[in-house]
Structure formats: C-alpha cells, structure tokens
Automatic annotation (TrEMBL):
Record keywords: Chaperone
Keyword Transcription regulation recorded: no
Protein name as catalogued: Chaperone DnaJ C-terminal domain-containing protein
Xref: Gene3D superfamilies: Urease metallochaperone UreE, N-terminal domain (2.60.260.20)
Region (Disordered) location: 64-91
One record GO biological process: protein folding
InterPro entries xrefs: DnaJ_C, DnaJ_subfamily_B, HSP40/DnaJ_pept-bd
Domain of life, per lineage: Eukaryota
Length: 280
C-alpha cells in the first residue's frame, strides 16, 4: 500500500504514521508514541517556581497598594502572615514558621497628651512579601490611642505589622511611650511639680500672682505668709490623670525660688538692718 507523500510524518489510517520516503510505521497505542517524546526542560532564564515558596503563599491574600520603587505593579497580594495573631510562638513545629524579634520604637507624647489622652498616627515603612516571592517596601499608618494617665514606658503592640520574610511570621511592632520634656512642669507619678521665681520683697511681705495650669489657663494664688526655704503650696486636682481612677487627677505642687538682690547700697543695708533687726 502506497502512502501519500506528506511533509514530515503523516498518518495513513490503519498503517499508522509514515515518513516522506513511504516507509510506514505503526504504534499500537498513541500514548506510547507521545510518551517516547522527552519532556521539555525549563529555561534557565525562566525557572519553575519552588514548591516551598508557592505553598507558603495564601491564594486568598488581600490586595494592597505598594511602592513602585522596585518596579513592581500595584495590588500585589500580601503574605497572610502579616495578619494579627494571638500569642504567636517563636517556632511552630506544625507549620515550621519562626517568629522574628519584636521591633520597638519610641513614641514621644507631651504631658498634655498623657493627661487628657489623644490619638496619634504614626507612619512606618516595612518589608512586605508578595505572592511572587519578592520583597517590596510599603508605607503604612498605624493609629495609637493614648489613654489618659499613661506613663513613660507603657507599651502598645501591633501584632504582625512589622517586616515580612519567607518562611517566617511577620514581626510585631511595639511603641514605647516616652515623655517629652515640658518647659514648665515636671511629672512625679500622678503629680506635677512647678517652680516659681519670686523676688525677696514679695517673699517677705506676701503677694498674689497667677499660676499656669497644664493644658492652658491660670489660677490666682494668694500668699500671705513669709516664704522661706522649702516652702511649698499644693493645688489639689491639677496634676496628671489617674488611669486607675478615671476622672481623678493628682496634685500640682508649687515650689518657690526666692531671688535675692545681687547688690545693696549702704542706705539699703542700713534700712534692712533697721527693719529686720535681730529677727533671725
């Protein structure tokens, strides 16, 4: 039986495939022929994805807008390890994931913010792992609610909002409250301390002057006694907020610094001696 000349190999019914020279060859099963073809090896320039990397990415990851500085498009899926986790361990035998050390940053607050409370927004830049195994940088704004009465050293932790890396949970970010130095007041526990300079003549004869308060405003303070070394006035309820007792505040302790004259004339010295005498 003569096979029609076909370029390359042709199929001739029950005689199977035939070469251009007319020599026919047959395969009992078509799969046997295709199985004899060696598989295609991947190109070195386009390697197949590693199973360990593919399996570590969640198919339903959320989409986020990312930085273009590294040439990656927007809305790349994120690693699900960035989600908040309750009580994460340093190493999990079940998942083989490790927990990186917590990243700590100071969060400076004024005495006014710590007394009355506030909401502070902090922008951080962190590494994010995409679905394709690339690490890109992402800016994120975290909102920290500062409660009235917080003190320096108070810590606020955002779980899973730190840097991401392959084979690990996302790191935690902890903000440590730090107090900004105030120009007038100094905090001691729930109390505030204020030092007021006063001239010698007013310290001896009494006076009335305004006292500044935290958060603005003043209150008038009457002094009708001689102000000596160590004299202090306590103004109740004008200190810092007490976080254990909402609505209550500490005291404002006012100390006095008496300014003595740097020089006196002979007449002033004589007058001072005649007035004070041996009063002590």
């Amino acid at each position: 039986m003569q096979c029609p000349p076909i370029r390359g190999y042709g199929y001739n019914g029950r005689h199977g495939f035939q070469s251009r020279r007319g020599h026919c060859f047959r395969h009992r099963y078509m799969d046997a022929f295709f199985a004899s073809i060696p598989p295609r090896t991947p190109s070195k320039r386009s390697p197949l994805p590693r199973p360990s990397l593919v399996n570590s990415i969640h198919n339903g990851a959320s989409l986020r807008s990312v930085d273009h500085r590294n040439g990656f498009p927007e809305n790349l899926p994120r690693n699900p390890s960035s989600k908040w986790k309750s009580d994460p361990t340093r190493y999990s035998k079940l998942s083989g994931m490790v927990k990186p050390p917590t990243i700590e940053r100071n969060l400076e607050c004024t005495l006014e913010e710590l007394c009355y409370g506030c909401m502070k927004k902090v922008m951080i830049t962190r590494d994010v792992l995409t679905l394709y195994g690339q690490i890109i940088q992402e800016d994120e704004i975290l909102s920290v609610k500062v409660n009235p009465g917080w003190k320096k050293g108070t810590k606020v932790t955002f779980e899973g909002m730190g840097n991401e890396s392959p084979g690990a949970y996302a790191a935690d970010v902890t903000f440590v409250i730090a107090e900004k130095r105030h120009s007038l007041f100094r905090r001691v526990g729930d109390d505030l301390e204020l030092t007021v300079e006063i001239p010698l003549v007013k310290a001896l004869t009494g006076c009335s002057f305004p006292i500044p308060l935290l958060g603005g405003g003043t209150m008038n303070l009457e002094i009708d006694v001689i102000i000596g070394p160590g004299y202090q006035r306590v103004i109740k309820g004008q200190g810092m907020a007490n976080k254990k007792e909402p609505g209550s505040r500490g005291n404002l302790n006012v100390s006095f610094l008496v300014n003595f004259p740097k020089d006196l004339t002979n007449e002033q010295r004589t007058a001072a001696v005649s007035v004070l005498g041996d009063s002590g």
